[in-house]
């Protein structure tokens, strides 16, 4: 095999392991957290924001790699096209790479602040618990929701604190709750007879819409901020409603799984609505990550 071909395969292998398609769904959590800090009247140094965004992506990459290593025996049957079953990387090398990415995340967070490092360590522990155990139990959805909520808290640490005054705490709760609700639908579906995860996702999307609408009203932002937030919230509602109804009408495994993945992307729009309450620019900064997230998801669908 030519050197160029070997290099290309290594790059593709790593990109597949870290789920390059989903890496850009993590930064919106962090940007929302930073927006909440600004809404509370504190400042967020730009370098700290960039740092925690990078840390969030490292944790996401480590979690995806660890998931592949843990699931290697099952993927050998269900997804033989994944890098580890194909022999491009050993299972233990996958564990090692995941560990390196997690360590890099904690060290990177330490460069921001000890508080950011502590939240990152807690986030890593939650991801490891999710990948290693919770994902195969009824608590899996709760585990995923917790990781998304902690990711928002990681963004909050960019402002030198991990606490938020009421009602700002509603934002990470809404984010984590919605993520938990759609996790079951985004997972691999065994057959097309069960609509339970679809109903839960629908209830989660409805609850997130109502809670976010209340949050926008309670924060009494400027007219421009309110209009931006409600426009984004309407886009989120229409996106998820169409997606979930389609899955409910035709609950075939491929359709339901695709709908779940679409609802995960819709989380970025929900977070943009929450961030827009601080200022429209924060909403747009959050929404900007949807472009690479959608583009990569379409170009490189996760097997």
Automatic annotation (TrEMBL):
InterPro entries: UbiA_prenyltransferase, UbiA_sf. GO terms for cellular component: plasma membrane. Its main location: membrane. It is found in: Cell membrane. The chain crosses the membrane at residues 46-67, 88-109, 115-135, 198-217, 223-241, 248-269, 281-300. Keywords: Membrane, Transmembrane, Transmembrane helix. Gene3D superfamilies: UbiA prenyltransferase. Pfam families: UbiA (PF01040). It comes from the Archaea. It is a multi-pass membrane protein. This is UbiA family prenyltransferase. It comes from Halorientalis brevis.
């Amino acid at each position: 095999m030519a050197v160029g071909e070997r290099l290309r395969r290594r790059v593709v292998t790593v990109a597949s392991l870290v789920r390059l398609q989903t890496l850009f769904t993590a930064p919106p959590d962090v940007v929302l957290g930073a927006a909440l800090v600004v809404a509370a009247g504190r400042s967020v140094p730009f370098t700290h924001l960039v740092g925690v965004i990078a840390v969030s992506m490292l944790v996401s990459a480590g979690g995806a790699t660890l998931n592949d290593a843990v699931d290697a025996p099952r993927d050998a049957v269900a997804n033989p096209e994944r890098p580890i079953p194909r022999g491009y990387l050993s299972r233990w090398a996958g564990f090692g790479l995941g560990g390196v990415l997690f360590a890099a995340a904690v060290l990177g967070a330490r460069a921001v602040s000890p508080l950011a490092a502590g939240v990152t360590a807690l986030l890593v522990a939650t991801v490891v618990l999710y990948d290693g155990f919770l994902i195969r139990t009824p608590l899996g959805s709760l585990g995923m929701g917790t990781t998304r909520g902690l990711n928002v808290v990681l963004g909050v640490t960019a402002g030198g604190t991990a606490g938020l005054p009421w009602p700002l705490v509603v934002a990470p709760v809404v984010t984590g709750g919605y993520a938990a609700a759609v996790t079951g639908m985004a997972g691999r579906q065994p057959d097309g007879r069960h609509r339970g995860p679809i109903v839960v996702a629908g209830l989660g999307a409805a609850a997130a819409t109502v809670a976010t609408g209340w949050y926008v009203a309670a924060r009494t932002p400027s007219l421009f901020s309110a209009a931006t937030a409600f426009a984004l919230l309407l886009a989120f509602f229409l996106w998820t409603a169409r997606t979930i109804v389609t899955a409910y009408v035709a609950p075939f495994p491929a359709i339901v799984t695709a709908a779940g993945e679409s609802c995960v992307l819709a989380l970025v729009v929900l977070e943009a609505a929450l961030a827009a309450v601080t200022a429209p620019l924060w909403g747009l900064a959050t929404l900007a990550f949807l472009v690479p997230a959608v583009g990569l998801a379409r170009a490189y669908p996760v097997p």
